Amino acid sequence: MRGHVQGQIDDFLAERLSRRQQWLFQEHVDSCRTCQTALQQAQVARSYLQWLVPSEPPPQPGPAFYRRVQETIQQEQSSGWFRNWAAALHPHLAYPLVGLVVLLLAWTLTFPRQGLMEDSLMGMDFPASEFVQLSFSNADRGLGRDLVIRTLVDLPDAGFEQLALAE
Amino acid sequence: MDVPHNVEIVLPVPEVLAEASSAVEADWEVSLVRRCQLGDHDAFRVLMERYQRKVFAVAHSLVRRPADVEDIAQQVFTKVYFGLRRFDFRSALLTWIYKITVNECYDYLRKQRSDRLLCVAEMTADQVRELQNTPHGDLSPERRTEVAQAITLLLGKVSPEERLLLLLKEMEGYSVQDLAQLFRWNENTVKVRLFRARKRLVQFAQKQLRQKKNQRKGVQ
Predict the structure, then answer these.
(1) d(CA B82, CA B102)
(2) In a domain, A82, yes or no
(3) Taking CB atoms and an 8 Å limit, are A44 and B170 in contact across chains?
(4) How far apart, in Å, are the Cα atoms of A155 and each of A150, A161, B85?
(5) pLDDT in tens, A2-41
(6) Which neighbouring-strand residues pair with A120?
(7) Which pLDDT belongs to residue B8?
(8) C-beta atoms of A72 and B61 within 8 A
(9) Residue A48 confidence (pLDDT)
(10) How much is the pTM?
């Protein structure tokens, strides 16, 4: 069997093959499943796409079309400064740069919160100065004592050593 | 011999492509783009006048509403204007403009889909059979539009490059040689990509057909 004739499908459909080429093509297609499928697919795809050819002529651009495009361009130029800047720069560079700026901004905005943490109790935005002003009832004190004892019991040996050193 | 000036002569080769095939025309196109890139408004006007009919024709085939076609063409040339700064001549200018046009049409259809295209049910099994067997002229204009929209949706399932290739080949009538020039590929590459694009398109149609059959079975 000769080699596949898929490369000739377009010429076959456009009737650009000579009679002999056409005969050889047809003979091969009749005996080769792969080329037969390829030809069928080409014919079906073609039949689908023919539906997109409109029966009526397309509208023609009016005399004001150029002016309308110019107006849109001017609008875009005045409002889309970032797009123009990005287009002039290159999108592959512009967007990472913007990402970097956003990250820097985010970092700058979160920075003062670190100072607040030092003044707060256990990082809960609860300043120590306010904590000492609180008055505790006996029940509260009991609960607090239980909590301290439980924490000490849960501490590993290393924790006791550290406590002893601290004393 | 006197030839009336108002008579258009129809050539067998697509007009723009025939012009672009000569080296002089290619140089002219390069210089036109360069002038546009330098901000020459007159050059941009020439570019628009040269390609606007092509843009209108492709948009009309895919969208089919004259008022929308002009809006799309307007968006296309706005994108061309801003995008020309980055145009690097890897393909012909016309290919690039076609690509923008087809993408713009599909963006537009996606936006419109909720309120317009949903009423045109996606292809039914009968429609698919009808597509293959019915001569185009036998259907009413409304039905033709519906089928065309169904095909447009189907074509939306293949990649943008495959879509463009199929549209230019089967709808605009470009030959393999023309496409090789437009895309700056060799002819074998065009043939292989066309083969893959058709295969995918038909596979999507078959898949849709199977889904419809299964849905119908489910209903019964």
Answers:
(1) 17
(2) no
(3) no
(4) 9, 10, 68
(5) 578 888 898 898 888 999 999 999 999 999 999 999 999 8
(6) A127
(7) 39
(8) no
(9) 87
(10) 0.64
Interface of B with A in 99-158 (CB under 8 A): 131-132, 136, 141, 144, 147-148, 151-152, 154-155
Q: Give pLDDT, residue B121.
A: 41
Contact B181, B92 (CB under 8 A): yes
A143 belongs to a structural domain: yes
Residue pLDDT, tens place only, B124-170? 556 556 555 666 556 677 777 778 888 888 888 899 899 999 999 98
* Per-position DSSP letters for B127-164, written without gaps between them: HHHHHHHS-GGGS-HHHHHHHHHHHHHHHTTS-HHHHH
In a domain, A117, yes or no: no
- In the three-class reduction of DSSP (H, G, I as helix; E, B as strand; rest coil), residue B190 is classed as helix
* Beta-carbon-side half-sphere exposure of residue A52 (alpha carbons within 13 Å): 29
User: Do B166 and B205 form a contact (C-beta atoms < 8 A)?
Assistant: no
Which residues of chain B lie closer than 8 angstroms to A72, CB-CB? 74-75, 78
| Spans of chain A, pLDDT less than 70 | 1-2, 80-92, 111-167
Distance of CA A20 to the CA centre of its chain: 55
Q: Is the ipTM of this complex over 0.85?
A: no
C-alpha A43 chain-centroid distance: 38
Amino acid at B54: K
Task: Check: CB of residue B170 under 8 Å from CB of residue A49.
Answer: yes
Domains, in order of start, for chain B: 15-119 (1.10.1740.10), 120-220 (1.10.10.10)
Q: Which residues in chain B are contacts of A84 at CB distance < 8 A?
A: 82
Q: By residue range, what is the domain housing residue A158?
A: 135-166
- CA distances (Å), origin B194, targets A52, B157, B189: 18, 15, 8
Q: What distance separates the 2 farthest-apart alpha carbons in chain B?
A: 71
Asked whether residue A92 is domain-assigned, the answer is no
For chain A, what is the domain count?
Answer: 2
- CA B13-B17-B97 angle, 5° bins: 135
| A59: nearest CB among B60, B132, B148 | B60
Q: Residue A157 CA to chain centroid, in angstroms?
A: 50
Average pLDDT over residues B75-91: 92
